[in-house]
Write a structure and sequence with these properties.
The chain is α/β, with parallel strands linked by helices and 136 residues long. It has a single domain, classed as Rossmann fold, CATH 3.40.50.720. It has three helices and five strands; from the N terminus they run E-H-E-E-E-H-H-E. The protein has a five-stranded parallel sheet, sandwiched between helices. The protein starts with 5 loop residues before the first strand and ends in a 17-residue tail after the last strand.
Amino acid sequence: MTTAKHCLVTGAAGFIGSHLCDRLLALGHSVTGLDSLIVGRLANLEQAKTYSKFTFIEQDAATITPATLEGIDWVFHLAGLADLVPSIENPSQYYHSNVQGTFSLLDACRGAQIQRFIYTASSTCYGIPDRYPTPE
């Protein structure tokens, strides 16, 4: 196993983010979960909260600064809004969350000299699929 790292997971209270937190904690890493709770639910973090190496921050990814990342080694960026039709109906909110949030996080990571940055996107980027499950 690699040396234990301190990981930040954005979108931590989402379905995939919460499972990633659980897995990283089970592997012995420290995890800071960050989520605005616009979409995510605290109930998804019940297992993570049983670990002493887990902390949670309720914060919008667009407001992250290098100071927020002090002591973080790896960043897993899962935060964002999905769903195609709402993104067309409210493009400003989606831009803020998905574009500005990612840019702010990347800029903060650069300032904090983060070792690894993993970005995860939604299948929404493929548009409305012709068939399910959606192939890449």
